[in-house]
């Protein structure tokens, strides 16, 4: 019996190593593949490439769920969740409020594939006044293969920098009529394993995940010192038409409420400069020098002439 047991263990070892190796294959990105014709796919993407126009009254009535930075959060979207059926938007949505006074934000949004079904997310980012500022259509969130720590999923990363003077910004996650007519092609585990070990890839069909109006989302939100992000909101009072940023491109939209405020010629508004100086003082008083440095960096990036002097004086007084 012991000899047979040893042979059995020997046979099982390659299988176990194969499974572990497959799970450690570097993540590869696959474009969303639909089961519709190329022309229909092009039409659907055109419809999804335009930021939705939602009345401020509708947005204000949504129950916005607060999100903390430096934390992972799971959002379950079901038929009992918040629903929004406006224009092309259909089904359950996630309405999230992000802190706007912690500096730049890096947000990794994942939609998990389960039982060959997945929620295909679109994201509209709004400033504190519910004005559209950034838009990420569903094809921005691409298929990612599973790893040891992650399942099959659609995933994308958003980098946002809230403008000064705001307490929070908003992120609306939704799916559309167009998304529900398409699907996502996954990668068969046998193919992934063959690619990883250099074997011939078997000629077998990949599984298809159907897009649904419910699903499971995960968000990883963290603060970062990155000044190259998309600016959310206005640091200055402006009367120009708002621009909605779509990924790395920009899409001009007509403002929902015309403004008659004259643009300010100063590099930084007085109240904004004072806000930063007070925040720097408060951070140094509490001993949080790292936060004070981040505030200084952001203030100077926006043209503050007094932030550095405030920082130096506070540090000297602290000594």
Automatic annotation (TrEMBL):
Matching InterPro entries: MalM
Keyword hit for Ion transport: no
Keywords on record: Signal
A UniProt-annotated Pfam family: MalM
Extent of the signal sequence: 1-31
Residue ranges of coiled coil: none
Domain of life: Bacteria
One Gene Ontology term from the biological process aspect of the record: carbohydrate transport
Gene Ontology cellular component list: periplasmic space
Name recorded for this polypeptide: Maltose operon protein
Species this chain originates from: Xenorhabdus cabanillasii
């Amino acid at each position: 019996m012991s000899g047979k047991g040893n042979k059995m263990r020997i046979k099982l070892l390659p299988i176990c190593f194969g499974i572990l190796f497959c799970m450690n294959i570097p993540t590869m990105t696959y474009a969303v593949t639909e089961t519709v014709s190329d022309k229909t796919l092009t039409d659907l993407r055109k419809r999804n490439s335009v930021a939705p126009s939602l009345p401020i009254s509708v947005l204000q009535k949504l129950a916005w769920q607060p999100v903390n930075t430096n934390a992972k959060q799971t959002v379950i979207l079901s038929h009992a969740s918040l629903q929004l059926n406006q224009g092309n938007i259909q089904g359950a949505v996630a309405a999230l409020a992000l802190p706007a006074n912690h500096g730049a934000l890096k947000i990794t949004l994942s939609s998990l594939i389960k039982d060959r079904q997945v929620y295909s997310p679109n994201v509209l980012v709004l400033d504190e006044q519910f004005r559209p500022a950034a838009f990420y259509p569903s094809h921005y969130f691409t298929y990612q293969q599973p790893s040891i720590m992650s399942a099959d999923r659609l995933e994308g990363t958003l980098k946002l920098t809230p403008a000064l003077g705001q307490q929070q910004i908003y992120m609306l996650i939704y799916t559309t009529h167009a998304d529900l007519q398409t699907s996502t092609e996954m990668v068969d585990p046998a193919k992934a394993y063959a690619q990883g070990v250099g074997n011939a890839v078997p000629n077998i069909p990949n599984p298809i995940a159907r897009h649904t109006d419910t699903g499971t989302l995960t968000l990883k939100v963290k603060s970062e010192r990155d000044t190259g992000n998309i600016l959310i909101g206005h640091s200055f009072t402006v009367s120009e038409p708002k621009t909605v940023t779509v990924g790395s491109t920009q899409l001009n939209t007509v403002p929902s409420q015309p403004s008659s405020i004259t643009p300010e010629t100063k590099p930084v508004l007085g109240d904004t400069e004072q806000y930063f100086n007070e925040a720097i003082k408060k951070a140094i008083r509490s001993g949080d020098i790292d936060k004070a440095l981040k505030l200084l960096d952001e203030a100077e990036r926006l043209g503050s002439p007094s932030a550095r002097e405030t920082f130096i004086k506070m540090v000297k007084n602290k000594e």
